[in-house]
Amino acid sequence: MSESEYILVTGGAGYIGSHTVIELVDNGYKPIIVDNLSNSSYDAVSRIEFIVDQHFPFFRIDLRDSSALTKIFEKYNISSVIHFAALKAVGESTKIPIDYYDNNINGTINLVKVMQKFNVKTIVFSSSATVYGDVTRFGDDRYIPIPEECPMDPTNPYGKTKYMIEQILKDVSNSDAGSDLKVAILRYFNPIGAHPSGLLGENPLGIPNNLLPYLAQVAIGKREKLSIFGNDYASHDGTPIRDYIHVIDLAKGHIAALNYLHKIGNSGLYREWNLGTGKGSTVFDVYLSFCKAVGRELPYEVVARRSGDVLDLTAKPDRANEELQWKAELGIDEACKDLWKWTTENPFGFQIDNYQWKEFSDDLNDRLHTFKIDNFKVGIINYGATIQNIQIGDQLLVCGFDNGSDYKSSSNPYFGANIGRFANRIKHGKFTLNGKKYQLSQNEGDKNCLHSGFNGFDKQNWYGPIVKFNDDKFKVDFKLIDKDGNDGFPGDLETILHYIIGYKFIEIEYESKLLNGESTIVNLTNHSYFNISNGDSIDDTEFELGTDQYLKVDDELIPTGEIASIGSAKFTLTSDKSFDNCFIVNENDDRIDTRSNELKQLVKASHKDSKITLIVSSTDPAFQLYSGDGINTDGFKKRSGFCVEPSRFLNAINQPNWSKQVILKKDETYGGKIKYEFK
Amino acid sequence: MSESEYILVTGGAGYIGSHTVIELVDNGYKPIIVDNLSNSSYDAVSRIEFIVDQHFPFFRIDLRDSSALTKIFEKYNISSVIHFAALKAVGESTKIPIDYYDNNINGTINLVKVMQKFNVKTIVFSSSATVYGDVTRFGDDRYIPIPEECPMDPTNPYGKTKYMIEQILKDVSNSDAGSDLKVAILRYFNPIGAHPSGLLGENPLGIPNNLLPYLAQVAIGKREKLSIFGNDYASHDGTPIRDYIHVIDLAKGHIAALNYLHKIGNSGLYREWNLGTGKGSTVFDVYLSFCKAVGRELPYEVVARRSGDVLDLTAKPDRANEELQWKAELGIDEACKDLWKWTTENPFGFQIDNYQWKEFSDDLNDRLHTFKIDNFKVGIINYGATIQNIQIGDQLLVCGFDNGSDYKSSSNPYFGANIGRFANRIKHGKFTLNGKKYQLSQNEGDKNCLHSGFNGFDKQNWYGPIVKFNDDKFKVDFKLIDKDGNDGFPGDLETILHYIIGYKFIEIEYESKLLNGESTIVNLTNHSYFNISNGDSIDDTEFELGTDQYLKVDDELIPTGEIASIGSAKFTLTSDKSFDNCFIVNENDDRIDTRSNELKQLVKASHKDSKITLIVSSTDPAFQLYSGDGINTDGFKKRSGFCVEPSRFLNAINQPNWSKQVILKKDETYGGKIKYEFK
Question: Where does the record place the NAD(P)-binding domain (chains A, B) (predicted)?
Fold first, then answer.
């Protein structure tokens, strides 16, 4: 497959679609996701990106929207399509059949028409074992386990849409126009489980129809007990036998099918493959396995058989095993373990109370995420994982912009920014590491490298966030891969930023690892501008520092090496006083990971016109105090806010006795913590 | 069914649809036709209107166009839908399946959605016996003849679309929203034949797939010979057995189903009915029957069996017979007779070379029909069946307007109009018939009734035309029903106007019958304004009349009874001469139908500036010669043209010795002929 070719994944934000996108990326494919999100969440997409460390094209469109779909085919060189998009609730399909036929069939017909228009010849279709219907109808078990040859007789509108789409694709492939079309029909049995990361799984909406999602809700107390519909079947424990397949195995089946279609070259093909394990499990087997994963017995009750249920629906997966060289490898125990992890870490799936996001700077890769706890509100954007807003009631406590362009403007004085890969100044942007000299971008008057140059952490869209809520706190994770050579820094650096947002406090934890190379330099901080005066200016803010020691600097603002005292650590910031100094709280800690330190209070700030007090603490040995005299940007002027920037020593890399603070070697972890509290 | 309720007929311009619309009207239903004309012709609609003597709403839309369809449901109170619209060629469906699925299935889904939106609960669906597939697949004849219970297994995309639509409608009717939906599935066997009028039938496009249309084309020499696919089947003559049903019987089946659904009240229903005769005929039976209709043996050849063909596909129609009280009454002999009539009279269906029409005054009920023979061109509009244009090469020979509004304007001096029900003047609009006095509209200075009043034949849209071409002549029929009491005339009067257009001549034949009442008065003429001068004025046109005798008139322009001579019948129309006189060519013919007379030359006109000579002849006893001095309208002034208006004597109804000329009694026919020739 040539570099520029894409795989269009319809319904890629859904349960099976999202897992398949991950497998695609792992196998070197470039996915484009199309989803109308009618039954799924964009958060799934952003979690995929977090897992695979890349952004990819996403379009929120309905497949029935021909012109929107056509635009995508015009813009990208699409080689193949994996078609998941469909309504899929059996019960619902009997209530609103016309919506199922409209969405599933029209959507597919429209997709096929656009594919034909753009000469796209490869499609993997997400079908279902429901097309077989009740295979016991033959009066014997000649079709158990179920082979692909089993005659089809779906018994509900959902199943019929899958059946009809198979017929449509088959007829197209039989037509002249479709003679070189390659169609893989994948008939799923019972997909279960979730992504082992705990980041992805089936988004639980409404009352689950399926055994395991239901059990999961019993386990978290959302449902009272599991109903087992009949235990008088001819199985080892009397409950019906189904073929449960781990969603990861299922996703891998799609890659196998896609590879197979690519392998056979340009000749046409229409072929069906069962995706199942071939091993049947009873309802009770699954129940016990899930109880094991949860670690306790879950309440259940045996009730009457459900009409339409039959004893055994196990797949005969031989065809897929042989032709696609694909085999389900995971069992129900792994599935239950993964599902339980997903469930406990995301009890309500992607829905989290008091967390909302919206597009920022018209870009789904840069969203504004808002977190609320009572009257405490925090806003964070993907661009720089920047703190855009902190407020208590109506009182704004930091400087922030309302739109993306202001953040990208050169007049933005690093509002709320996370500074990396190296905070503060590096003399003339030069340093030596393992005897090798490096020249960084010199973005401060063509001399020093300030705050990492032109394309620092603060100027990139971070992956995520992964948002979770427990113990009354939001846990919000962002991730960034800073590329080797960016602004001159060596080595790919992965940084995970953990925000913990509780009532009236924000904790920031930085965690960076070198992905390649021997070593690099790291020094991270957050650059929020605080203003607790309840007015436009920070003048007359009262400060109480954790130290009076600071680094003297030369006229290039680079430390001379000399440490001095400012006199008193307690003062009022009158309009004639200003600061841009690096204070020292611990001369002797030169570890790259300071997180094991106690949080040390660096600054306590209050103001006569406000009841709110700010306390900044950190595990790092130093901090820059800056009184914001240089602010001159959209809506903000000089002294609109002040910064407390916990970090390593200023220009530490160029001072032999400090440099250990900032040199990250492979297999080590850079770490540091900052906490902002409001009292 | 309340007066204001309509039946929406999708695909109503098609073969079966058009015949069903006629049955609907005959059964007191009010149809609305929707058709995208992708595979049919509007001429079918205008022929239906000609047959049933009424206009009905027609919309050229595609069912997939939701907003267009919605507008129709908003505008009309639609009680039920009969759904024919579909692509239907089995062979084609295997070549372009996606178009079949898109058109047939999406169209239906969209229709159902709009029906649900407007709470329309009754639908009759045009399905097909193809849904059964090969009923011999069971290895025995348990399903021959084929009952509705026979399992379905369509073998081509066309059949699958019908099958899928059945499933969709079934699922909708099973859903809560569809619980009170009434669905009649009508499974057709082999529709054949045509409308006995010879006006409607299957429009032959491309190579026919079916036996009889193919035979018909062999009969008219369009195909060399019939191929009979195998004569070694186990039938009486070795050819396969099918169930051929006359399209008229089929159409009646729809009315029976509709009546049935209306009868069962508001309870929901989903039910399938076979529409077939129950009597199988072999290919050879049909061949022989058609040869009988044609009157000669048609060439055929027995070739190899066709794959997919089976011995016997005869319907078991018992369910329809019993439940719908419907039974096929016509046999293959009638069908062959009707098909042959349709074929001979319309060898190319609705397609006729050198005949075209387009909308006139933005109204499909008023179209401009253009006929060309070599350099001779004639235009006729439905409004008044008016002659809008006659030209030879570039020379225009009559006065006419380019748009409908000019014709409707009060300044239109009856350009090209057919005048009826009573041409010329009736004194004070009064007359007495069978001792009863009548007062007509007095539209000439509030005194005389001129050219029938305010709403004469010339101000109504005529049905038709039915256009045929043979012996180098167009035969063009229009029809008008002039209502009892219109402008004061008694009795409903049906008038059929036959135009015969040959090279450089037009013949007009009027034929009127009284539809009710004892008698009425009729006097018809055509009011074309000729100008053969090749210039703007008719001055200096040279006339040679067939008579010098004319009726003297009083100052109200009503004859005194005295007949006088103008001196010489040969004269040049100099600018100082003008005419508006009734000339007499036969004093003694007082028959109501003059068509048996020889055409008598009334006027020969020529002009020194033009090579073209006009000869007007007629079977009528008189004619009005008018030099157009009163013309004053859009683009035309005084003396732009002259009229020769063959007719009965001026005001004849009020002259005892003339009145027989114009009194039409029931069971009699008014008739007259006019001919315009150009030399």
Answer: 8-338
pLDDT, residue B204, reads 79
CB B205 within 8 A of CB B41: no
Query: A109 vs B109: CB contact, 8 Å cut-off?
Result: no
Q: Give Dmax (Cα) for chain A.
A: 95
Q: Does the annotation count A527 as an active-site position?
A: yes
For residue A9, give the DSSP letter: E
Helix axes B211-219, B332-345, angle to 10 degrees: 50
- A482 pLDDT band, cuts 50/70/90, is very high
The DSSP bridge partners found for residue A622 are A584, A647
Closest CA to B461 of B423, B512, B513, B407: B407
3-state secondary structure of A79: strand
**A405 inside 8 A of chain B by CB:** no
- Of residues B97, B106, B171, nearest to A171 (C-beta): B97
pLDDT over 80 at B12, yes or no: yes
> Rounded to 5 degrees, what angle do the CA atoms A536, A541, A544 make?
150
Segments in A227-282 forming alpha helices (H): 247-263
CATH of domain B355-678: 2.70.98.10
Closest CB to A113: pick one of B94, B102, B116. Answer: B102
Q: Tell me which of B404 and A209 has the higher pLDDT.
A: B404
**Chain B residue closest to A104 (CA)?**
B106
Per-residue confidence at B179, pLDDT binned at 50, 70, 90?
Answer: confident
Q: By C-alpha distance, which of B524, B491, B349, B543 is closest to B419?
A: B524
Question: Are residues B66 and B107 in contact, defined by beta-carbon separation less than 8 angstroms?
Answer: no
Distance CA A132, CA A144 (A): 11
Identical fold, B5-203+245-278+314-324 and B355-678: no
State the average pLDDT over residues B124-135: 96
Where along chain B do its domains lie?
A: 5-203+245-278+314-324, 355-678
Q: What distances in angstroms separate CA A37 from CA A45, A87, A89, A193, one per listed residue? A: 11, 11, 15, 21
How far is it, in rounded angstroms, from Cα A265 to Cα A467? 44
Q: Per CATH, which fold does B5-203+245-278+314-324 belong to? A: Rossmann fold (3.40.50)
Residues of A in contact with B97 (CB under 8 A): 168, 171-172, 174-175, 178
Q: Judge whether B155 is closer than 8 Å to chain A, CB to CB.
A: no
How large a percentage of chain A has pLDDT more than 90?
94
What amino acid occupies position A435?
G
10 Å CB burial of residue A200 (0-12, 13-18, 19+) is buried
